C-alpha cells in the first residue's frame, strides 16, 4: 500500500508543486569540514514484517467487502507553504472484477465504476462521465488506468497487498511502536521506513487483521508532506451485480479521455 500510496489519494508528488533547492559551494580556502558521521543503519524486525505480511494476505483473501475511508493529505502550494486537504471515500469490492469507489475531498469529487470490462469515471459536480475499456481484474484495471490515462483511483494500493508489490518488500526499517485504539477498535501499531518514505500502519488485533489506519511522510520533498487515512471495514457477501452498473443522470454528458501511454502489453 505504501511506500508510494498510489491511491489512497492522488499521488502526493503529483499534487505538490515542484521545489528546487540551490546548493551552496564552499570556497577553496574554507576551513576543513568536520568528519562526516554516517546515517544510522535502519533495522528491520522480522516479526513486524511478518505482521504486515499476515495483514496483506488476509486483505488479499477478502473476496467481497465494503470500505469507508476518512483521509487528509498535505499539498505544497506554489509559494512553498504546506496546506491540508480533507476527504472521504466509500468502496464496494467484489473480486476479481467488480469495484465501485466514490471519493470526495476539498478539491474534487469522483465516482469510479468497474464491471470487469469497462471503467467509468464520473464527476457529479461537473456533470460529465467517461467510459474506457478496462482489463479483466481489479488490479490489472488499476494499473492500466494509471499507466494509460493517468487515472489514479484512491486506495489502489490495497490491491497490491499479498503480491510482490506490497510495501513490506521495499522496507529498509521496521519496528513495533505499541498498541492503540482506532475508532474504538484495538490495534497494533507498526512503523516502517523505505528509501524516501516514512510510514506507519495500525492493524486490527485478533483474527481479522485489516489495516485501520495508515500514515505516510514523503521525505523526498523538503516540506515532508503527510498523508493519513483511516478505514472502516464490513464483510459483504451480498453485493448485487446491479451495484456495479453505472447509469448516468439525465444531465450527465459523456466525454473522451486522453490516452497518455501505450496500452499495457504493447511495444
Quick rundown:
By secondary structure, the chain is mainly beta. Helices cover 12% and strands 37% of the residues.
Beta content comes to: 35-45%
Q: Topology as H/E string?
A: HHEEEEEEHEEEEEE
Low-confidence stretches: 1-39, 263-267
Strand tally is 12
Tell me roughly what share of residues is in helical segments: 10-25%
Based on CA atoms alone, the radius of gyration comes out at 21 Å
The separation of the N and C termini measures 28 Å
* Biggest sheet character: 12 strands, mixed
Which class do the helix and strand fractions yield?
mainly beta
Shape: globular
Word description of this protein:
With 267 residues, the chain is mainly beta. The chain is 12% helix and 37% strand. It is built from 3 helices and 12 strands. The longest helix has 15 residues, at 46-60. The model is unreliable at 1-39 and 263-267 (pLDDT under 50).
Amino acid at each position: 500500500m505504501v511506500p508510494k500510496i498510489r491511491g489512497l489519494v492522488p499521488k502526493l508528488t503529483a499534487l505538490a508543486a515542484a521545489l528546487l533547492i540551490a546548493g551552496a559551494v564552499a570556497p577553496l580556502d574554507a576551513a576543513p569540514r568536520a568528519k562526516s558521521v554516517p546515517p544510522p543503519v535502519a533495522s528491520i524486525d522480522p516479526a513486524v514484517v511478518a505482521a504486515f505480511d499476515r495483514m496483506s494476505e488476509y486483505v488479499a483473501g477478502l473476496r467481497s467487502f465494503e470500505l469507508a475511508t476518512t483521509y487528509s493529505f498535505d499539498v505544497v502550494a506554489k509559494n512553498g507553504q504546506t496546506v491540508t486537504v480533507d476527504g472521504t471515500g466509500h468502496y464496494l469490492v467484489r473480486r476479481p472484477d467488480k469495484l465501485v469507489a466514490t471519493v470526495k475531498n476539498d478539491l474534487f469529487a469522483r465516482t469510479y465504476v468497474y464491471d470487469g470490462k469497462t471503467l467509468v469515471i464520473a464527476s457529479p459536480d461537473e456533470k460529465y462521465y467517461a467510459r474506457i475499456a478496462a482489463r479483466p481484474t481489479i488490479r490489472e484495471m488499476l494499473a492500466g488506468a494509471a499507466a494509460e490515462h493517468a487515472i489514479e483511483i484512491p486506495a489502489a494500493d490495497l490491491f497490491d497487498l499479498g503480491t510482490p508489490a506490497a510495501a513490506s518488500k521495499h522496507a529498509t526499517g521496521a519496528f513495533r511502536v505499541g498498541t492503540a485504539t482506532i475508532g474504538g477498535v484495538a490495534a497494533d501499531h507498526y512503523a516502517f521506513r523505505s528509501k524516501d518514505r516514512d510510514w506507519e500502519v495500525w492493524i486490527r488485533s485478533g483474527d481479522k487483521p485489516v489495516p485501520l489506519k495508515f500514515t505516510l511522510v514523503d521525505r523526498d520533498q523538503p516540506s515532508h508532506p503527510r498523508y493519513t487515512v483511516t478505514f472502516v471495514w464490513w464483510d459483504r457477501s451480498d453485493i448485487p451485480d446491479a451495484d456495479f452498473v453505472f447509469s448516468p443522470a439525465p444531465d450527465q454528458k459523456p466525454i473522451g479521455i486522453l490516452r497518455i501511454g501505450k496500452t499495457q502489453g504493447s511495444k
